[in-house]
Amino acid sequence: MTPDAHDILFRTLADPTRRALFERLCREGEQTVGALTAQSGVSQPAVSKHLGVLKLAGLVRDRHAGRQTHYSAQPAALGPLTDWTSEMTGFWESRFDDLENLLKRMDQ
Amino acid sequence: MSNPELRTVVVERHISWPAEKIWRALTQPHLMEEWLMKNDFKPVIGHSFNLRGDWGGVLDCEVLAIEPNKELSYTWNFKHADAAFDLQSVVTFTLTPTRTGTLLRMEQSGFRPDQKQAFGGAKVGWQQFFGKLEEVLARAD
């Protein structure tokens, strides 16, 4: 797990519209851009742009059928964030940061 | 590793302080609280204690091994009704003196294999996941 991969996932999901699109695809399964736009409250070009960012992060996959593009969620892409080993590694790295700060303040 | 289901996290850091000083920070409750969590730790094998996180979580711990300035090991268990969150693990700190300080090594082992699935795909997990994500992002500023 590289810090870059973390950054990309966090940045991608930090946007509420993108997060809503991703959650909806997780909840309801594959959807066309049109169907996603109808409920998103933003324009179709904006939805397409968000889907492009989600796709770059590996969070969605697209499938072309005729003139329609269907998108589906790829929850496995969240693996790096949900994996306990990387989560705990981050936890201990940050604890050790605090430990080093404490050691600087301690006498002796 | 004899048990293929075990998972291990290792974090190592070279710290430019002597092992004796780091040992104090690892074993004195008021110092542990400053970098780890609130606790009622005692440096006695078999002593049961809790680590209390700021988020309200309480870890059940028991001292397993203690060798002053060298090694400290305790259980790090978190009880949760949902088995996917239930955690039974052992944390071991090892201190190795170097020319310029100490190599501090933390090894945590014992994760259940299904914990990786706790969030991925589980509907119930989404809320917690995104709540957590937002916390992380808020702290990142």
Mind explaining what this structure looks like?
The complex is a heterodimer of chains A (108) and B (141). In chain A, β2 and β3 form a beta hairpin. Chain A has helices at residues 3-14, 16-28, 33-40, 44-56, 79-82, 84-105, and strands at 31-32, 60-65, 68-73. By secondary structure, chain A is α+β, with helices and mostly antiparallel strands. The mean pLDDT of chain A is 85. Chain B is globular and about 45 Å long. Chain B has helices at 19-27, 29-35, 123-140, and strands at 8-15, 38-39, 48-52, 58-67, 71-78, 87-97, 102-109. With 141 residues, chain B is of the alpha+beta class. Chain B has a 7-stranded antiparallel sheet. Chains A and B meet through α1, α2, α5 and α6 of A and β1, α1, α2, β7 and α3 of B.
Would you kindly provide a brief summary of this structure?
The complex is a heterodimer of chains A (108) and B (141). Chain A is α+β, with helices and mostly antiparallel strands and 108 residues long.
Number of domains of chain B: 1
Could you tell me the CATH topology label of chain B. Answer: Alpha-D-Glucose-1,6-Bisphosphate, Chain A, domain 4
Write down the secondary-structure element order of chain A: HHEHHEEHH
Terminal CA distance of chain B: 40 Å
CATH class of chain B: Alpha Beta
CATH class of chain A: Mainly Alpha
Rg on CA atoms of chain B, Å:
17 Å
**Greatest interface and its participating residue counts:** A-B, 30 and 34 residues
Q: What topology, given as strand order, has the largest sheet of chain A?
A: 1-3-2
What fraction, in percent, of the residue positions of chain B are helical? 10-25%
